[in-house]
């Protein structure tokens, strides 16, 4: 009776280890050969860095987990991406073409993480425009700077470690623009106050970055300009609804723009497994069990709350999965599970507070032009959505009529943006009087 864990970040690693400790046979699947997840990528050993911890904070705990996983006799690792689910059979691609394995999962733990959400803007498809996560991975994992003059923009705490990693590899970060407002953070102070480790982390980033770059709030990138690649970023002040303030636009010479408007979970496998999705996340109970009884979820798939909360969710999910496959009983694992649940509940409060504090403004579409590409796979411009809106009844039909989300990424990058734009256009269309 086996437990299959997909994802080897903090949640997946902890889930695998706790399930194995409880007596289950575990297969840990991740697309990378290295454990730790995207954020915890470290430079290859061949780089010979004397002090890798300077660019990978928290790497020691990840290394400890990885060593224990590598030495555990009941954990097998498999490097490859999950191609599909067929009932309880997990199809894993382990090489080029059709090479792979089919693994039967008596219990499945999804710890698939999240990726950057990027709101489209004119010119965002130009070479030189990166997601903040991609820039961070290149800097921390390969010691590569995406540019020499870099602008970091978006919203949320992710901007801080990205900026530090870019400075660490020699980039000149000309500015960091957060479209949010400090007032939103202050309103959430009572909830955030209990998260001393996270607040100390944020303060540490700010302390190290002060003097090295310029920070601005209520500001953002509204366009990228260039011929063959980005040459300038057009920035502007934003109001509370994220509308560009007239008269505040200015151009900044750059050779790279790194953007992240928060994070969004990877839900493809959860949807394939029939899990209920609520408010953009997998709905789980207190044992991290989804609506599909043999499928558990942990980490960013259930809410964005940071590595500590993700690891706690992984611990609960791993123990519950071990109970599911009858490797142990709930009475034997109840005590450690309940300790982890306390951390999970604290993380859930933080997640809700952060979601509110970094909420995306309702009118970000006002910086779009008719020609702005909203779906890069299918090269769909914003005008195509606008033209189709009057003839459609809901967001899904509007997106399908324009082929939004039907390209190679299957809406992973553009789906949420397109849905919000479609809903906005449909509301506007419904409120307009009919043409006489």
Automatic annotation (TrEMBL):
GO molecular function: oxidoreductase activity
Keyword presence, Repeat: no
Pfam families: Pyr_redox_2
Signal peptide positions (record): none
Record keywords: Oxidoreductase
Domain annotation FAD/NAD(P)-binding: ranges: 1-314
PANTHER family assigned to the protein according to its UniProt record, in alphabetical order: ANAEROBIC GLYCEROL-3-PHOSPHATE DEHYDROGENASE SUBUNIT B
Protein name as catalogued: FAD-dependent oxidoreductase
Organism from which the protein derives: Saccharopolyspora aridisoli
